[in-house]
Design a protein that fits this description.
5-stranded mixed beta sheet; binds adenosine-5'-triphosphate; 48% helix; binds magnesium ion; 6-stranded mixed beta sheet; alpha/beta
Length: 392
C-alpha cells in the first residue's frame, strides 16, 4: 500500500497543533474516522505505522485516536519514549478504541500494558458518534489548555530575557558613571596641586606637590583598571594596614579639612589592624565616606575615625571594624533607606549620588557589611558609618 499522508482540512484550516492523528491500520477504519472528524470541522491526519505516529506527535498535534489492535507487539514500547519525551507543560491526550464487553484476563492484561501511555481516554467499540465526538472535544480542550500554559511559560521566559538585557544595560551605564565619579576626586586634587605650584617659590614644596600629583594620577589609573576588573575578574588581595590607608586619605583631604575647620580624631586599636583586601578598594570606600562627612560639615565639626579589630566570631576569623562618624546635620529619615541606591543625592548639581552606591557595591563584593546610624533635626545630630571587614 502506498504510504501517504492524508490531511483532511475542515472549513477553517486548523493548525498542525490542533490536528487529530488517526492510527487505525485495518480496513477502512481510518478513512471513515477521518471523514467523521472532518464533518465535526476539525483537521486530522492519518498515519500508517507507530514510527509515523511518533513523528507526527513530535511535529505537533492536538490528540490521537488509536485503534487498540494497532498497538500489538512492541508498539507500546515504541510509543512510550515519544510520550515520555514531552515538555513539562504537555500531557498528550490519546483516545484508544478498545473492544467492548466484560472484563476478561485478556482485557486486564491489555489494561496493564497501556498504563505507560499516560493521558488515555478509552472509547469502547462499536463507538457511538456522540461518544466519540464528545471524547475528542474533551481531549482537544485539554490540549488547548496545555498550549495556553506553554504560551504563558514562553512569555515569562521572554520577559525574563528582556529583564536581563535591561539589567546588563544598566550595569554598563553604572560602570561608566562609577568610573567618572571615582576619578573625579583625584582629578580635583591634581587641579588644586597645580594651582598651589603656580605661586610656590620653594623647590622643596614644589617637589612635594609634584610627588602628590603623581600619586593622585596613579590612583586615577588604578581606579579605572579596578573598576573595569570589578565587573570582570577578581583581583588578588594583599595584607593592608588599615591605619596607613586612613592616614593617606586624611592627607588627601587635608586642605578641605582645614578650610572647613573640621577636626579629625583617629582612634586605632593597639594591635595593628591588617586585613587581606584590595588596597585601592578600601581607599575608595573611605574616601567616599569621608567626602560625604566633609560635605555635611561645611561649617565646621568633628570627624571621628575608629579602627578596631575583632576576632571573636564563630570562626575566630580576622575582622576589622572601621567607623567614620561626623557631627553634621544627619541624613533625613525619608532619604536614609535609599542612600545606597545609584543616583540618589541631596546635593543637586554638585552630587552624582554614586559615592555610596559604589561603596556599597565594593563592600558587597568583598562580603563586608556597612551599617549607618544617623540623627537629624536634634541637638545631637550626626552620621556614623561603620564597615565590618573580614579577610577576603
Ligand atoms: N555623612 C553624611 N551626612 C549627611 N548626609 C549624608 C552623609 N552621607 C551621605 N549622605 C546623604 O546621602 C546622599 C547620597 O550620598 P552619595 O555619596 O551616594 O552621593 P552624593 O554625595 O550626593 O554625591 P557624590 O558622592 O557624587 O558627591 C547624599 O546626597 C546625602 O544626602
Ligand atoms: Mg558622596
Amino acid at each position: 500500500m502506498k504510504r501517504e499522508r492524508v490531511i483532511l482540512h475542515s472549513a477553517s484550516a486548523q493548525s498542525t497543533e490542533m490536528r487529530t492523528i488517526i492510527f487505525a491500520p485495518t480496513g477502512r477504519d481510518a478513512e471513515l474516522m477521518a471523514s467523521f472528524i472532518a464533518r465535526l470541522g476539525k483537521a486530522c491526519h492519518i498515519v500508517r505505522s507507530v514510527e509515523e505516529l511518533c513523528s507526527a506527535i513530535a511535529e505537533g498535534a492536538g490528540a490521537a485516536i488509536v485503534a487498540e489492535e494497532a498497538l500489538r507487539g512492541d508498539a507500546i514500547q515504541q510509543l512510550e519514549p515519544a510520550l515520555a519525551d514531552q515538555p513539562s507543560w504537555s500531557d498528550f491526550p490519546l483516545i484508544l478504541l478498545i473492544a467492548g464487553g466484560r472484563v476478561t484476563v485478556e482485557s486486564e492484561r491489555l489494561r496493564a500494558l497501556r498504563k505507560p501511555l499516560g493521558n488515555l481516554l478509552l472509547v469502547e467499540r462499536p463507538a457511538r458518534p456522540e461518544t466519540l465526538s464528545s471524547t475528542l472535544e474533551t481531549a482537544l480542550r485539554s490540549r488547548e489548555r496545555q498550549y495556553q500554559i506553554r504560551d504563558q511559560i514562553r512569555r515569562a521566559a521572554q520577559a525574563q530575557d528582556a529583564l536581563i538585557k535591561t539589567e546588563k544595560l544598566a550595569v554598563t551605564g553604572r560602570l561608566a558613571a562609577s568610573i567618572a565619579h571615582e576619578i573625579n576626586n583625584p582629578l580635583e586634587s591634581i587641579i588644586n596641586l597645580l594651582y598651589l605650584m603656580r605661586d610656590e617659590s620653594s623647590i622643596a614644596n614644589i617637589r612635594q606637590y609634584v610627588s602628590q600629583a603623581e600619586q593622585e594620577l596613579a590612583r586615577v589609573s588604578e581606579i579605572t583598571k579596578h573598576t573595569l576588573r570589578f565587573y570582570k575578574e577578581p583581583t588578588n588581595p594583599v595584607d593592608v594596614d588599615v591605619s596607613a590607608i586612613v592616614s593617606s586619605v586624611i592627607d588627601l583631604y587635608q586642605s578641605r579639612l582645614s578650610a572647613a575647620r573640621v577636626h579629625v580624631y583617629v582612634k586605632a586599636s593597639r594591635s595593628p589592624a591588617t586585613i587581606r583586601a584590595n588596597q585601592g578598594e578600601l581607599r575608595q570606600i573611605l574616601a567616599n565616606l569621608m567626602g560625604n562627612s566633609l560635605d555635611a560639615m561645611r561649617l565646621g565639626g568633628i570627624l571621628h575615625i575608629r579602627i578596631s579589630t575583632d576576632s571573636s566570631g564563630p570562626q575566630r576569623s580576622n575582622r576589622v571594624r572601621l567607623t567614620v562618624a561626623d557631627t553634621g546635620p544627619g541624613i533625613p529619615k525619608d532619604l536614609l533607606p535609599r542612600i545606597f541606591e545609584p543616583f540618589v543625592t541631596s546635593k543637586g548639581e554638585t552630587g552624582t549620588g554614586l559615592g555610596l552606591w559604589v561603596t556599597g557595591e565594593l563592600a558587597k563584593k568583598n562580603g563586608w557589611v556597612i551599617r549607618v546610624r544617623s540623627r537629624s533635626g536634634t541637638d545631637q545630630c550626626g552620621t556614623t558609618f561603620s564597615v565590618v571587614m573580614a579577610d577576603v
